[in-house]
Structure formats: structure tokens, C-alpha cells
Amino acid sequence: MADDTCHPQPGDLIEIDRRVYQHWALYVGDGYVINVTPVDEGAPSLSVSTTSIFTRKAKVKKQLLKEVVGNHKWRVNNKYDRSRTPRPVKEIIRRAEQWIDEEVPYDVLGSNCEHFVTELRYGEGVSEQVKKAVIYTASAVGGIILAGLAAVVVKGFSGASSKEKNCE
Q1: Of these residues, 23, 72, 115, 167, which one is catalytic?
Q2: pTM to 2 decimals?
Q3: Is 23 annotated as catalytic?
Q4: Of 7, 113, 115, 167, which residue is the catalytic one?
Q5: In the sheet that 57-64 helps form, which strands lie side by side, from edge to edge?
Q6: Sign of CA dihedral 25, 28, 31, 33
Q7: What are the DSSP E strand ranges found in 12-162?
Q8: Mean pLDDT for the chain?
Q9: Active site residue 113
């Protein structure tokens, strides 16, 4: 990791690489982040589970960055700064701290941890990983459909006749 991605400043977005997704938090200073974790899950946002995918509520927590990260890789990633203007740092922190210990709606597609922190930083909740997942899923389904159609077409042109028998 480059030095600038390892030394967060208050208001920075923190991206944490998990096995199948990225968890997002907002750095507020002194080693702490604010992030959302599913209410139904006992462990502090350290792993993905079916509970975190299907839960409808999350709790906003202020935790040490090192506790949220665990053994996973992380980096500062203010990637939306290219297309959005961040709020002033004091406003980001003030807004974030107002949410601590509150329950918030949670939906992996429309209101997840990335949506939460980007709303705080930019005033708009966005999640590129959701967009990528939707595109990937649509591409995979489309590929399966095309493969099925290709198999039907190939079988249709294979010259098999109704007189042929299957060997047993």
C-alpha cells in the first residue's frame, strides 16, 4: 500500500477488502471509524454471512479501525472525489457522530455500508460495488441463456434423426 492510502485523515473513506465484498467505514480520527453493521449479526462487521445479506436493519458504531479491519487489507479510498465534492471535514464528522448507536435501514443493494459513508462525505449515497454486482449478475445470466440457446441450435444442426437410438 502506498503511504497516502495507509494514513487516513478525518473524513476519509476506508475500504476494507473482505472475501466477497468490500466493507466501508468513515475515518473520524484518533484511530476510530464510524460504520454500519447488521443488527442481527453478533460479531462486529468482520465477515459476510447470510444474515448480513438479508438483514433489514443495521447499527451505526464507532469502533477502532484495527478492530473493524481485523486481518483484512484496507486502504483510504476517496474514489468519488473525482466526480463529487466532499463536504467540509467538520460537517462530515458532525453528521457521522450524530448517527452513533442509531439503528438505520439496511439493504445490501440500496442502503449498505458504502451508501452510508458516501452519504456522509458527499451528501449522496452511492455504491459502485452494487452496480458492478448487478452488471456481473446480468452478464452471467445472459451468458447462461446464450449458452443454452447455442446448445439448442447446435443440437438442431447436428444431423441427429429420430431413427437413431441412444445406447444403454
Answers
A1: 23
A2: 0.70
A3: yes
A4: 113
A5: 74-76, 13-17, 22-29, 32-38, 57-64, 103-105
A6: negative
A7: 13-17, 22-29, 32-38, 57-64, 74-76, 103-105
A8: 77
A9: yes
